[in-house]
Each structure stands twice: as C-alpha cells, then as structure tokens.
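Continuing from the previous page of notes. For each protein in this section, the sequence appears first, followed by its structure tokens. Read the first protein now.
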Amino acid sequence: MMLCEEKFHEMYKQDATGISFCPYRICPIGAHSDHNLGKITGIAIDKGIHVAYKPKHNGVIELTSLQFEKRAQWHIAETPPTKQNDWADYLRGATLALAKNHSLHIGLSAIIEGGLPIGGLSSSAAVIISYVSALCNVNDIHLTPAEIILIVLAAENNYVGVSCGKLDPSCELYSQKNQLLYLDTQDDSYELIPTHPAMKPYKIAIFFSGIERSLAGSKFNMRIDECRSAAYALKAYAGMEYGKFGETNLREVPRNVYEQYGNRLPTNWAKRAAHWYTEFDRVEQGAEAWRKGDLDKYGQLSFESGKSSIYNWETGSPELKTLYEIMTTTDGIYGGRFSGAGFKGCCMALIDPAFEEKIKERVTHEYLNVFPALKGKYSIHICESADGMII
C-alpha cells in the first residue's frame, strides 16, 4: 500500500476509491528547446506522483500533499481566477483549463505523494496529470493525451506563469518502457525508438543536490524571452515576416539565416540561439545513436547538452554544475546533465549497472567534499525506464 493510501485512510477513516499515477521524466538531450518548437528525447522513469482520491459530490476540491504542509481547498465552480502562490496553483490552473471545455460537478478529496525529492524531474507536470486523471475519473470525462498536454500548458503558462513547453507532459504520457521518446514539438509527431538488442545495459541515476527552488521566480522565463528575442532579431535582419513576439520562435528561422546574421545578435541572445541550434543537432544525432544501440555516443551527446546548458543557456546552480563536473569524470557514467531548468533539483545520468556502487560512492564523496552542509539533504536514487501514464 502506498503511503498516500495509508494517510488517506488515516485522515478520512475510509479507503480511497481510486489511485492515479504519473511517472517523472528525464530528458538526456533536448533541454531548453521545446518552447521554441525544437526536438527532444525523453524517458519516463519508475518513480513519480501518486494521488489517492475519492469523489466529493458537493463539488469541493480538498487536496493534501505529503511534501507540503498547507492543505488546499476550493469549490469546483469557484476556482480562484488568479494564482494563490502556493503549491496547489498548478492544480487550480488545471481545474480552470479543464472546465473551459468540460462540465465539472463533482469535486474530490485527495492526498498527493511524490516518489522523489522535488526539483528537475517535471514534478509539476506529473502532479497536474495525476490530478486531472482523478478529476476526470470522478466526473466521467475522457481526454486524449494531446488534450491533457494542453491543460498542463494552460496551467503552467497562463496560471502559474512558467513559460515551459510540451517536453514534460509529452514524456510522461507518450513514453514506453525500454524505448526512447523522440518528439518534434513543432507538429507533435513522435517516434518510440526501441532499445537496440546490442545496446549496453543501463540504469538511470538521479543525483538530488539537496537544493529546492521555484521556477516562476527564477531566470527561467528570462532565458526563453532571450531566445525569442534572438528569433525576432534574426527575422528582422533577414527581412522575414514576423508577428507577435510571444508567438515567435527559432524553429521558424532557417539555419542559413542564423549562420548569416547570428554574429549581429547581442551576446546573451547569441548564446541562447547557439544552444538551441546545437541542441537541435544533438537530438537528431542522439536519436540515431539510440537507434543503432550506441549508448556511448548518446551519453556523450548528453554530456555536451549539459555543457551547452551551462555555458550557452547559462543556467545551473553551483551545486548542479559541481555534480555535472563530477559526473563527467566518473567511470561507469555514459552521460548526463542537470535535469530541468537547472536552477534547482537534480542531475540525471545514464549509468552502467556494474559500476552502480562505485558511482554512488565517488559522486557522494566528491560532492559533499565541496558542499558539506548538504549532507543529509543530498541523495541518490537509481531508477529504470518506465511506461508513461496510461490514459
């Protein structure tokens, strides 16, 4: 029995009538590109968000998180139209997005449990998807994965104010165990590339830095604005048509235009564009390497993605940069990078299972040698690839 089920019975003196689960995801190659309609590769992992719930026929939504202290409550017909600046804002936003096209009459009581520390694994999208699944279940609503992805984007972009793209929910919905998701966020076409029979064995290591921070208040949105600014300027230099700033993206700017006019961009805009175009190349090369079973090549491209994220995208806290540098010199790690925006959370790595214990020992020793105050907060979690959420 999951802890959320036990807590549900303890709180409500009855069993939950439903359990929904959405996995976390990793994105070894393709980071910081989906918001400008790039390509990504991703894998769902066997840890994620569980929600134990039962319907409330009076329309009240009552949410308790095992990771946060404050309980959230509102009526389904009176969802606050603006964010309340707490952990449940993602779910308020999702409620409003769902209610735009569907009739909601039944609320729910729910207890939410996260399987790993918060930060870098798309926990916000996983929480939204698990919650929406529960809310749809009690209201007899049936959604496609594409519809759920739009609800996630509406909640994060419009309600919470984080300018993320489709990467996170797509990985959590479309992924399948032992396959690599290769997604083009321009048209949402995707391929699931099977693990090649000759590929070396691997597991997924999550190195949690011990640091948790909020995306909405960070430089995450600024980086995306800088990327759009580069696209807008390149279009102007080339005499291309351009419309609204918020709808402009680098995918619309041909490579030859970038190569011809990129040196005119202000330094920061040029760096963001450099990351986006080189990451596009890395994704295509990575998909081909996975198809051939070349895990060494795929891992090296993931390391290169991490380096570009640090030096061109210019994200990564001191803790995550340190973890990244340690990973690059640790035997048995094929490749990896910090996971998510890089302002909080964790690094992920694809590792050789034969080196698991040595990797844990070395990374822990080297990291806590630099950040001794994080002992007890830093942690390592070994995961496997998994299926995305079944709708």
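Done with the first. The second protein uses the same format. Note its length before scrolling.
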Amino acid sequence: MDLCDPVSIILVTAGSRGQSLLFRYPFLPPCQTERREKEIPKNRFALGKVEENTDTRNFSGIKDGHLIGFSDSTLANILSPKSDACGTKFELKVDEVLFVGHPTLAHERHDHEFKRNDSSSRKDDVIMKLFNVVFVLQASVEPSVVHCYHDLSKRIAIALKHEEIRYSN
C-alpha cells in the first residue's frame, strides 16, 4: 500500500438524532468490529483483559492496510465536530492514524431556527445539521498530501451540499 493512498473513506452526519456514520470504505464485516468492541470493557473504570505480548499499537490504528479498533459509534463521535468548526479544515491525529476532512453545515440556518422548526414539525422528522467527508491516512504522510485530501474533501462537501439544497427545493 502506498503511503499517499487513503486507508479509509468515511461519511458522518450530525443532526437532530445525534451523530451517525453513514458510509465507511472499505467495509468491515460486523464480526470484526463486534470482536473489537467486546474487548473494550463497558465500564470505563474497569480494567480490560491483560494479555502477554500484546502490541498496544494494534489496538487502534492501521493494520494490514485497514483501519481497526474504532467502532462506528466512536468514529461518528470523533468525526462530527460542533457547528462552529464547520467550513474549516478538520484534522485529527490518533496514534498512527490521521483523519482529514472538511465538516460542512447542511443548511445555513442558526441553531435557534432549528429548534423553532423542530417544535413546529413532526417528531419523526430528522434534520441533518452537518456532514463530514473524512479521508483516513497514515499519520506519517507528507503535509502536501494532507492538503490535497483536505481540498478533495472540501470539493466533495460543496457538491453534496449543492445536491442537498437542490433536492430540498
């Protein structure tokens, strides 16, 4: 695998029902992600199973060209920033993994307008506030490559927002 190639591509959204991961490439079968989640203790104060010769770098990171150790809910939480951070470069480094994106507001409305519209609409309606197209890279990638993936993420976000506006009108 080339150092410049993305390890994964992820689309997350945040809205009236919280954060959710809509798309993840390459797809990991549920058995692989469930096995990793079972290894993590449910009680945050509980200690996990200690095994001999455990390589802590493989707990969350890149292994054999795949992103491992991150559940879908964890990715949705860490890749969905607050509305204030939308429209700017998103860059997050966790161990040997670099997440690069450009979070974008789905609509240019303020939070008080969302609240007002939420109270007048049906409770079943789902309002998407923001989305983020994220490229997952190896942390050792050159800054120029990071800039290119950020630019690509921004262009995809502009196209998705345009289609969202076009469809809603």
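What the second structure shows: Helices lie at 30-39, 72-78, 111-120, 143-168. The radius of gyration is 18 Å. We return to this in next week's lecture.
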